[in-house]
């Protein structure tokens, strides 16, 4: 629901017969007279944009919302219809207007990024608090864009190059510190699209295949000292609410749970917490799964995930990650509502 700005002028009282007729001020639309400042509703409606309500993270968030006495509403992103009307953007779900939403939590899978971002953007246009917003989701989903922003701010990332020059692959390898080299699709997830090349010939074959298919890739330094492990820190607001170290299965360098990796709880040092929170803030993410490699000199950022699944993290740590996320989402919604309800002078 678009948050209404409330005028500081007094609300009109019932007309008295003796009062002289006053010209009626034109209103921007045929909406009812100005309301009193909007009081945050006690029971909030929390929309989760998700393709399936049976997904673990979606189910857990629904539970957490109910436990807190609020109303969860799971909407399939692809069934949301955006109506563009001047000054009054609306959202339809199966033909019905969606109103009275207090906060939206998008869980946008990689396969529907384009449509998903449009839906998230539309909710933002309607004045509904959204975490994460469309801009931050979009820039974190592009691994190159995210790394550009992180290293511009001085955060440590593995040496990375992006190029399209087939004649120069040897030079690219030198730039990232020699073989083996990691090759990454810009928008891969769950370890799909992350490869390793041990020889120049192998690398040449892989990059040529991708370039011929019209796919861009980045080449990255292989951080050998991480030994098939990485750290996933879940940042919510300005805190790390849970962290695990993931260990790749034998013969695999990717530690993703989806690739057979195992998660173990880990107590992060302040340096890792600081880097994870700074990285999320830099990309504007309220909720972020921050992946870091354990370099010799400390954390090396790999990527930030804007719709992080947390089944592995809850199971590894036994922590209530869904609860921490919902507490933040509800506080975020209340802070936004209070800001919108402030009278304009
Ligand atoms: N430069 C690197 N050096 C060593 N290992 C790496 C490097 N980059 C990635 N890896 C390994 O590959 C895994 C997948 O990489 P990355 O996190 O970039 O991909 P993803 O497909 O987006 O994963 P996610 O499912 O976490 O979104 C990492 O968790 C890590 O174990
Ligand atoms: Mg990822
Ligand atoms: Mg990752």
Please, could you describe this protein's structure?
- It comes from Archangium minus.
- This is RimK family alpha-L-glutamate ligase.
- It holds the Pfam family RimK.
- Keywords: ATP-binding, Ligase, Magnesium, Manganese, Metal-binding, Nucleotide-binding, Protein biosynthesis.
- It is a single chain.
- With 345 residues, the protein is of the alpha+beta class.
- It has 9 helices and 15 strands.
- It has 3 domains: 132 residues, Rossmann fold, CATH 3.40.50.20; 64 residues, 2-Layer Sandwich (Dna Ligase, domain 1); 102 residues, 2-Layer Sandwich (D-amino Acid Aminotransferase, Chain A, domain 1).
- The strands form 4 sheets. Strands 13-12-11-14-15 form a 5-stranded antiparallel β-sheet, with helices on both faces.
- The longest helix is centred in the C-terminal third of the chain and has 21 residues.
- It is globular.
- The structure holds adenosine-5'-triphosphate and magnesium ion (2 copies).
- One magnesium ion binds next to strand 15.
- Adenosine-5'-triphosphate (ATP) binds next to strand 8, strand 10, strand 14 and strand 15.
Helix-strand pattern, N to C? EHEEEEEHHHEHEEHEEEEHEEHH
Q: The CATH topology of the largest domain is what? A: Rossmann fold
Task: Let me know the average pLDDT.
Answer: 89
Amino- and carboxy-terminal Cα gap: 23 Å
Kindly give the count of domains: 3
Structural class label? alpha+beta
Strand order of the largest sheet: 13-12-11-14-15
Q: Just name the CATH architecture of the largest domain.
A: 3-Layer(aba) Sandwich
Query: Biggest sheet: strands, sense, closure?
Result: 5 strands, antiparallel
Helix content: 25-40%
Unreliable residue stretches: 1-32
Protein name: RimK family alpha-L-glutamate ligase
Keywords: ATP-binding, Ligase, Magnesium, Manganese, Metal-binding, Nucleotide-binding, Protein biosynthesis
Cofactor: Mn(2+); Mg(2+)
InterPro entries: ATP-grasp (IPR011761), ATP-grasp_RimK-type (IPR013651), ATP_grasp_subdomain_1 (IPR013815), Rimk_N (IPR041107), Rp_bS6_RimK/Lys_biosynth_LsyX (IPR004666)
């Amino acid at each position: 629901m678009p948050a209404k700005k409330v005028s500081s002028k007094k609300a009109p009282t019932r007309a008295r017969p003796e009062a002289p007729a006053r010209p009626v001020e034109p209103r921007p639309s045929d909406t009812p007279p100005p309301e009193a400042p909007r009081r945050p509703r006690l029971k909030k409606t929390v929309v989760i944009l998700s393709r399936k309500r049976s997904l673990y993270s979606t189910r857990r968030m629904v539970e957490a919302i109910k436990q807190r006495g609020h109303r969860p509403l799971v909407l399939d992103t692809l069934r949301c219809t955006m109506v563009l009307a001047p000054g009054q953007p609306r959202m339809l779900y199966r033909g019905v207007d969606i109103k009275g939403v207090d906060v939206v939590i998008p869980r946008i899978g990689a396969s529907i990024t384009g449509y998903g971002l449009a839906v998230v953007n539309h909710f933002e246009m309607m004045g509904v608090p959204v975490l994460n917003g469309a801009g931050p989701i979009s820039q974190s989903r592009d691994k190159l864009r995210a790394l550009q922003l992180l290293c511009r701010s001085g955060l440590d990332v593995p040496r990375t190059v992006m190029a399209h020059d087939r004649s120069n692959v040897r030079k690219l390898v030198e730039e990232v510190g020699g073989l083996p080299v990691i090759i990454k699709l810009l928008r891969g997830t769950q370890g799909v699209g992350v490869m390793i090349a041990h020889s120049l010939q192998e690398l040449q074959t892989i990059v040529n295949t991708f370039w011929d298919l019209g796919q861009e890739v980045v080449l990255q330094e292989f951080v050998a000292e991480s030994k098939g492990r990485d750290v996933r820190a879940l940042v919510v607001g300005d805190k790390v609410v849970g962290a695990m170290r993931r260990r790749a299965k034998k013969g695999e360098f990717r530690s993703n749970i989806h690739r057979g990796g195992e998660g173990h709880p880990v107590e992060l040092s302040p340096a890792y917490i600081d880097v994870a929170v700074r990285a999320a803030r830099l990309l504007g993410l309220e909720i972020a799964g921050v992946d870091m490699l354990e370099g010799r000199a400390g954390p090396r950022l790999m990527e930030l995930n804007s719709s992080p699944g947390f089944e592995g993290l809850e199971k590894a740590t036994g922590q209530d990650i869904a609860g921490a996320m919902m507490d933040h989402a509800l506080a975020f919604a209340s802070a936004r509502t209070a800001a919108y309800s402030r009278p304009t002078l």
